[in-house]
Amino acid sequence: MPDVWFPHLGIKIAHLNSTAFTIFGIEIAWYGLIIAFGVLAGLGLACLIAKKSGQKPEVYTDFIIYALIISILCARIYYVAFSWDYYAAHPKEIFDIRGGGIAIYGAVIGAVLTAILYCKFKKYDTWLLVDTAIPGLALGQAIGRWGNFCNQEVFGGYTDSLFAMRLNVETAAYTTPELMEKAVTVGGTTYIQVQPTFFYESVGNLILVLIMLLIWKKRKTPGVVFSTYFIGYGLLRFVIEGIRTDQLMLWGTHIPVSQALSAVLFVFGIALLIYRRRKTA
Fold it and tell me: 3-state DSSP helix/strand/coil percent for the chain, to nearest 5?
């Protein structure tokens, strides 16, 4: 029986291994390779936009070096901070990124901070840089979510909709009591049937990329593309986070931290858009 099965689409994947290959005894994960491909694709898109808008693409190849380092660091800090109960008891695992545990919102925060600092020290137009780079970030996110698919993680609750995804309980990254209550057994293999939230977010990000590229063509207000990202991704992630089963919670509450942050960023995006348009009116 397959590891992954989309029963209503007729798609079966016999074996889905999170490890792509091994070099000198070191396992190279599909997740890392897909993230790397997403970064390169995002950089390529940013360079293409830069070239078409009369900028130097080299600015973005230089920027990505700093952004990668700070974004990975922030992504890990975000994850550890909101999983502190676990890491307080296992402090040696805080630096074990290979063991998993990075958060996209931490990476986004890191990328934005890097952009602000980079433009300040390099004397570059901040609004121009973020408007140019942000579609690439969304493209990288769209591609990167398929790394979660390879890990059989980042899924939602039970569904029997068209895109319902069955995961072999022996290979799924985790299960929940609620999902196990509705588990199905076929041919001796037990499956949980879930919402493929990684797929929803990937498609949503691709649509957001297209919207931002269309806005770029008519861009008159610096910062409008940047604002659009926070409005679009904030709304998308708010909805998706509500159905995910692996949420990070705000300390001492049952509030998903990424859902709360999504709401804040959605409002921030609208406020920034209004401010920038008034500023340039």
Answer: 60, 10, 25
